[in-house]
Amino acid sequence: MTEDEFLKDLRRRMDGAIEVLRKEFGGLRTGRASTSLLEPVMVSAYGGTVPLNQVANVNVPEPRMITVQVWTAASSRRSTRRSGRPGSASTRRPRAR
């Protein structure tokens, strides 16, 4: 292994370690609520296990409060229609009258 390869590998591993450390520090209790506290929470939805933030809004309205507003199937269908996906109401051509 050449010195350049060694340094590249070392930098890659150190960057990974720093990223993990940042995630760990994000979960520390500092007297203020943080949405990162719920990042590891997984829920059963859509026929599998997904992160909570993919099926709900997670907010911090006050320093000591976290709110979780779970999306319903009806609201997720409405947002899909508004998203501009093919076949949705926002991408259809207007009908001739």
Please, could you describe this protein's structure?
The chain is α+β, with helices and mostly antiparallel strands and 97 residues long. The protein has a single domain (3-82), classed as Gyrase A, domain 2 (2-Layer Sandwich). The chain is built from two helices and four strands; from the N terminus they run αββββα. It has a two-stranded antiparallel ribbon. Strand 1 and strand 2 (48-51) form a beta hairpin. Residues 78-94 have low confidence and may be disordered.
Distance between the termini: 72 Å
What is the tally of helical segments? 2
Uncertain parts: 78-94
Going by helix content, strand content and strand pairing, the class is: alpha+beta
CATH class: Alpha Beta
What quaternary form is this?
Answer: single chain
Q: Tell me how many strands there are.
A: 4
Please state roughly what percent of the residues sit in beta strands, choosing from under 5%, 5-15%, 15-25%, 25-35%, 35-45% or over 45%.
Answer: 15-25%
Helix content: 25-40%
Quick synopsis:
It contains two helices and four strands; from the N terminus they run αββββα. The protein is an alpha+beta fold and 97 residues long. Strand 3 and strand 4 form a beta hairpin.
